[in-house]
């Protein structure tokens, strides 16, 4: 029996996005999908954070399958991620090209 699709919820500063994902999907595929939806091209400052089964905050490893992470599920078996800034440039005006990137770093 093949693994079933699973539900994912990604929270950003302004929105919440819900997806049905294939079990083979990697962190990068989810991250890229969110970046496309919010129209973000300068993605290197950001990542997807989750709470693991031991209640620790962790960063999703983009090269690994989502289901290979020990993500804590809610009562409805949904995996929750937070789209957050991982790195903050020293000089925002010099290092950020697009204005939209500054909005997401807030």
TrEMBL record:
Classification via PROSITE patterns: FERM_3
Domain FERM: 6-106
SUPFAM superfamilies assigned to the protein according to its UniProt record, in alphabetical order: Ubiquitin-like
Signal peptide (UniProt feature, chain positions): none
Any one GO molecular-function label of the UniProt entry: actin binding
Protein name: FERM domain-containing protein
């Amino acid at each position: 029996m093949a693994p079933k699709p699973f539900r994912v919820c990604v929270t950003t500063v302004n929105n919440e996005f819900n997806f049905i994902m294939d079990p083979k999907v990697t962190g990068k595929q989810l991250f890229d999908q969110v970046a496309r939806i919010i129209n973000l091209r300068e993605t290197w400052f950001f990542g997807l954070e989750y709470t693991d089964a031991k209640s620790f905050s962790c960063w999703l490893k983009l090269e690994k399958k989502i289901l290979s992470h020990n993500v804590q599920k809610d009562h409805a078996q949904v995996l929750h991620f937070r789209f957050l800034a991982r790195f903050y440039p020293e000089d925002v005006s010099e290092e950020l090209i697009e204005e939209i990137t500054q909005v997401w770093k807030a």
